[in-house]
Each structure stands twice: as structure tokens, then as C-alpha cells.
Amino acid sequence: MKFVSAAGIRDGEGEAIRRNPALDRAMMDAAGMGLAHAIRSIARHLDPPDPGVRLLAGPGNNGGDVFAAAVYLAEMGMNPEVWLASSVPQLKGAARHFYQAMAAARIPFQERTAEEDWASTLSEVRPPSLLVDGLLGTGSKGAPRGIIACAAAYLRRRRNESLILSVDIPTGMDADTGTVADGAVQADFTVTMEHPKAGMAASPARECLGSLWRVPVGLPAKFAQAIPDALPGLQWISEQDVRNVLPPRPRESHKGHYGTAMLLGGMPPYPGAIVLAAEGAVRSGAGLVRVAASEAAVSAIAARIPAAIAGADLSADLPLEGISAILAGPGLGRDPEARRLVARLLHEAACPLVLDADALAILEGRSDAIRQCPAPVVLTPHPGELARLLGTSAAAIQQDRLAAVREAADRTGATVILKGSGTLVAKEGESVWINLNGNPGMACGGSGDVLAGLLAGLLAQRMDPFQAACAAAWLHGAAGDVAALRKTRTAMNAADISRALPDAFRQVGVR
Hints:
The chain is α/β, with parallel strands linked by helices. It has helices spanning 6-19, 23-43, 61-75, 93-104, 115-119, 146-157, 206-209, 221-226, 239-245, 271-282, 295-304, 336-348, 358-362, 367-371, 383-390, 394-399, 401-412, 447-460, 465-487, 494-499, 501-507; strands spanning 52-57, 79-84, 109-111, 130-134, 163-167, 189-193, 211-215, 234-236, 260-264, 288-292, 309-311, 325-328, 353-355, 377-379, 415-418, 424-426, 432-434.
């Protein structure tokens, strides 16, 4: 999905409303409904569950979205309350209409128009588990001012006690540049309306954006398509994009329809790496998952993942007939036998091949060897691994991640997933796609192994390699967000990510 500028979305929506004035309320209603569903989806994963949510509204359209969402939240059985950082007479148009609907629904409401109204919150014992920032929208520039600044300061004070969800864009972040002003709100989640904004792809924005969700608001297609692409060559992986490419599961089907993934690795001292990859693979929808690993890894898989078929038969001469996708690397080792295995795969693979971890290390400085593989190849490096492959430094990779992932795809002919904050997926001659969900709790040992196993399982189902890579990145990030809600970003681990994959699939409508 393309990124748009603040002016582009304003003009597109404005023209649509000029042609059909009824769209003004209809789109705000859709925004409120989608926002309410996102809030409920997040709240249901909290431990312990908390039906309370406090929504902070500004005087503009973001405030109208909040009013509409509050009504839907009450209908869903949650307990919303709304604080307005303005006065009711300032509300105009559709925002005023949805304020009146909220008042008619008797949603608890307060006007907080003075600094002392916000200062009084210092004595608050404990806020709800979820606070919503609906203060300013995409048209705002610079630092929050006046009462809005007081409301933003309240959200910053409460960040260690509550999750923060921003509507469309965090207050204080520039929608076009990603610049974060002093006093900006730091969100855990941002629910953007219709299209992601260009500034969201910029690295300064990541600290306050949190995990990005999207709500379609019903902007007619001809107006949406006419909005200029603000970042040509870069696209965002959305929930809808993933939903569109996941393979269907017809009722009249069996495990043979969904392929066999073969995972190679798990040698000492990293037997757990292939175990975590297998956990990702068995939750991918693949028909069968086979593993060739060490005795220690095989024993762990037999105990933890009975659905996987594991054998201690890892060697360069391993039979690979009947395999639909191969993952080599997690805990593979770098000894001569591992090197012979990787060389064989690059010369003989007859199905998609995922290279991760040790398999990438074996290919240090040999990106040309990957291009010779007769089968599609997907690489899943972190910045250090990509640096070694390209003969540069991790700092250089991080300085311009977009250029680095493009270079890797062009050199190798492979699909490349550059992991990290704002995971990038590149293919030679195509736009780069960026994933903007996930959280810092995913920076833990084994997280990449889960991603690699998930990817191998998707490829086993005969997905296009580039589409599978984008879907795997998004699903992995979504599962990481669920794991953080359940376990916290500090205490979550890679196994929690794999256990949350069913929730990630459910989020895209998989049954």
C-alpha cells in the first residue's frame, strides 16, 4: 500500500466530500467503528483484561473519530470515557454530530478546557489500562500548544501505567517528515485512517509511532487512487495485503495440498534455534514439517512439537525428495559438512530455499553464489549478517537500510528480508515493502528463527516468495505485539511469539 502526504489525503477526502457531502459523516462513522474494533482487539489480549478505556479528544476530526468510537465501544460492552481538550462549542460539522450521538448514548464525558483541569490528574491513583490520543490529526505541525499540550503531557506521564493508542498519527509527529516535536505523544499503537502517512516510514517516527494498524474509512476508490504516492519505490505491508495473498484452505483438501517444509539446523551449541523455527513452521499452515537436526534438537522437538517429524540425519547427503520448501541455517553450524550442505542446496535445490543465520555466515562475501541457485531464494539477515554478505559494516547498513536491502536483492537475485525496526522486504526490480508492526520485545534470541520457520511453512504452500516474505514479516510482527500484550515487552520471549501466531492469523480473517 502506498504512503501519502497530509495534503494528498486532505485533498482526496475533501474532493470526495465535495462531490458527495454525505461521505463526511459516513467516513467518520467508519473511522470510529474501525477504531473501536482495534481498541477491543488490543484490550482483549491484556492480562488481566480491562474493559475501561479513556479517550482524549481534540476539537477537530480526530475528536469526531473518538466520539464515534466511544459509542461503538459501549455497544461492544467496554467502558469508554471521553475527555475533551477543548470546549463543545468549538466542535464543527461531523465532529459535532458524533459528539451529540455520544451524549445521547450517555457516555461519561468531561470538558477539560483549563490547565488546572489537567493538573488535577496528578493525584489520579490509576488510569485505565488503555488511553487513546485523539488530540491532533495529520494537518498539525510543530509542538502541541495550549490545552492540547497539557493533554499530551498527561499521556506522557501515564505511559508507564497504560498503553497509548494514537488516532491517525501521534500528537506532535509530523505526518510528512516523521519529525517528532518536543512534547509529542509516544504511542504503543497507531491506528491510521485509509492510508499510511509518509512520515511514518522515517526512522525518527518509530519511537512515537508504535505498531501501525490501518482502518479503511470508505473513501471511494477513484479518489483514493488519485492521491499521489508520496514515497515512490516504498510500499507498506498492510493487514489487507496479507489477507489477499494467504492461500485458501478448501474444505475438500488434505495435508498434501499444503506442502512439506524441511528445516535444517539445530546443531550444538544451538539446538534450540531449529526448535523455535519448527514452532513457527507448524503454525504456518504447512501440511507437514520435517526437521533434520542434532539428537538434542530431535529430542526437544519430540517433546514440544509432536506435529513435526524430526530425525538426527542432518548431512550434506540428506535426501530432499518430496520437499516443497527448505530452511537452512538456524543452528546449522559452519563446519565443512554444513558448508557442503549449503553448497549443494545452492546448486541442486528444486524448491524455494530460505537461508538464515549460519547459512548466511557461510556465504560471507559470496553474494554471487546465491544468484546461481536454480530455485527461488529468500534471505533473512539481520544488519550484521547483511553487512558480512555485502562486505561492509552493520553501521553502514543501518545508516541507509533502504539502499542496503535494494543492493542485496540486486546482487543476489534473491528476495531479502532485512530484519529490524521497520523490517524491509526487497526483490530485484520491485518496490521495497516495509513492515511497521512489532515492538522492541521482539529483540530477543530466537525471534528470527520463528520468522524463518514461519516463512518456510508459507513457501511450502506454494506462495510467491516475495508475497510470502511480506506476509511472514507482518504475521511475525503481529504475533510479537500479541505476545507483548500478554507477557510485556521485557518478559516475552521467542516461544511467546510462536504461540501468538494463531492470533496474528485470526487478525487477517483466517479461520
